[in-house]
Amino acid sequence: MCLAFPGRIISISDDQAVADFDGLQKEVNISLVSTAKTGEYVMVHAGFAIQKMNKIEADEVFKLYEEGRN
Amino acid sequence: MFENEIIEKIHQSAPKIKKDVNFMEVCGTHTQAIARAGLRSLMPANVHLTTGPGCPVCVTAQEDIDAIVSLANAGIPVATYGDMMRVPGVFGSLDRAREKGALVFDVYSVEEALDLQKDNPDLVFFGLGFETTTPMTAYAIKRGLIIYSAHKLFLPAMKALLEIGELKIDGYICPGHVSAIIGTGPYEEIKAPQVITGFQPNDILLAVYMLLEQIAERAPKVENEYQRVVRPEGNPKALAEIFDVFEVSDGNWRGFGIIPGSGLEIKKEFEKQNAKIKYKKILDKVDFTKSRRKTACSCGEIIRGLKSPKDCPVFKKGCTPDKPIGPCMVSVEGACNVEYRYS
Questions:
Q1: Chain B residues within 8 A of A32 when measuring between CB atoms
Q2: Chain B residues with CB-CB distance to A48 below 8 A
Q3: Which pTM was predicted?
Q4: ipTM confidence score
């Protein structure tokens, strides 16, 4: 139930944004995240953005983790 | 390629430990991801992945389900998230109530429930879920929605499992989207190896490797693999939304009973929107003694990680996704439903 999907914000009107989910566009409530901007990626759960995303993917975490250990 | 590299690391790391280890995933979305990618079959012989109480529908107490179905049967319009519709109770499910003529709506978001309220002013939203889902309910309460709260805080259940000690848990694969809200700090109170991780097979494999290394180095800590979404501070705005509207109470969990400090109840200032108060007269007449009756369903033990679905006497023998007996077979994140679909 805590399933969430990443979407890219393409337009904003007050607390509502339209986000693109791999080609599918849906309205997203962005009132729970601060200063979301057009072009940014947000993680969306049950119609609400719950966090802005950055681009640290698993392979980078792994690389940093291994570097830290050596 | 990257996936193979981590699997190799896991197999290099596991023999250093020289004992069996049991890692519990406590998020239903992880349960699904592990089964879908067949990750258990990739583990070394001494590394076991166990499913815990991560499915919000599954841990919702029978009394709460029987209460909301009773409200629907008494003519109160009810809305909730889809998975909850089919969970059977003493008085049937919400789906069954709808078939009999009750006004029951399944919604994707609280905004749909707020829209429904315009034509159904008495509508009650059955709010359930952990910190990921609670901010939306809080948002809706501030805009006038009436709520029956079965919301829960997640970490008290992780602590309770360690305190009960029925199952040896050597490490937790911590939930990604609960952590997006609460951050990494609260996990420090739990004295066990823990890795917060994402939902791709790579993320989960990396979490297993990091847990193994923590054990090998005898350095239990909280690590965050899911940095693309989880910040150390979580989402302060969403947390503030929760605690504007809710206060901590004792929570009633299927499989556990009452876990002190694990529930979220609506604050007095919003009590006119608290369905437990607004419809107290209806709820006081409900006979909950049957809700507490033991059945053949093993959901309680499965939620605590003591049994796997295959150990349940009714799994596939009377209990199937089409005709579920317990919530773990209803929810697509429930251990039994996942086992049924992927085994």
A1: 135-136, 139, 235, 237-238, 241
A2: 109, 135-136, 139
A3: 0.94
A4: 0.91
